[in-house]
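Instructor's aside before we start: the two examples that follow are unrelated to each other. I chose them only because their records fit on one page, so don't look for a connection. First example below.
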Amino acid sequence: MSAIRTIRQEPKFDEQLDGLGITCKRLDAILEGVGFALARAPESFERVPGTLLSILKTAVHPGAPSLRVFFTYNEYEVHLLMIEFCEDDVRPFLQFEE
């Protein structure tokens, strides 16, 4: 098992997160879960072909839509670069228990 990495939200990620217009307690829990998963095993998520980016897709929950998070990582850090709504039918990488 690799070391736990530090999660860094880049300015563009924060701007896009604010721009989503979502205000719900569930979003905070989802982002906490995203950070937890990425800090421990970012290498387990799919790479965007032809780039250094990786991608994580969250599951849909009542009051919280599916989100797609683009990130990069190294041995010590994960950089959250972009976030957007995910409206495709791709199977989610990350499931949260109610």
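Example two begins here.
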Amino acid sequence: MTVRANKPAFNIREKLKSLDYSHVPYEKIAPGAIVQTVFHFAPSSGGSENETTSTSYQDVNITKFNFTPRFLNSKILLEWYLQTKTTDSDGAYHYVRARRTINGTESDAGTGENAQLFFTGTTSAGDHTMYGPVSVALIDTPNTLSTIEYKLQQKRTGDSQTVRIGENGQNSELLCVATEIRQ
């Protein structure tokens, strides 16, 4: 007995032209590849700095932004580009750490204790002001598909120090790049 199967005819060239080569389905992205990148900019007018004299961590509101991962086990590379200012009449330090909030629960971002990104110190040379650009990065593994709020916090040590992140003259400047990396 002979069985014959007939397939409908199609034009291979037309079929290839209809494929969308500019978009790879997310589930086919290879491990180690970039899934998405989000850019966060300073406010477009006024208020592009946060200053404090507190010795306990305070939110740096201009650095707050939301990020929603596409994969549960992704790593998130966070890179901040900041202007800093420290004023002091004695030796002191400016501490900055990264925090994340997922479903209302705040915790350290990254793997370090207090997710401390950096600190700068001043000398005991009398009254002075120190300005400086800072770029810092960390890898976070939030293990969630929920929206994450990322932010920086800062505090000071010393008896009369004021610390600041941001500069009002830098409205609309890039503050952070968040990159999701497939695992």
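The longest helix spans residues 12-18.
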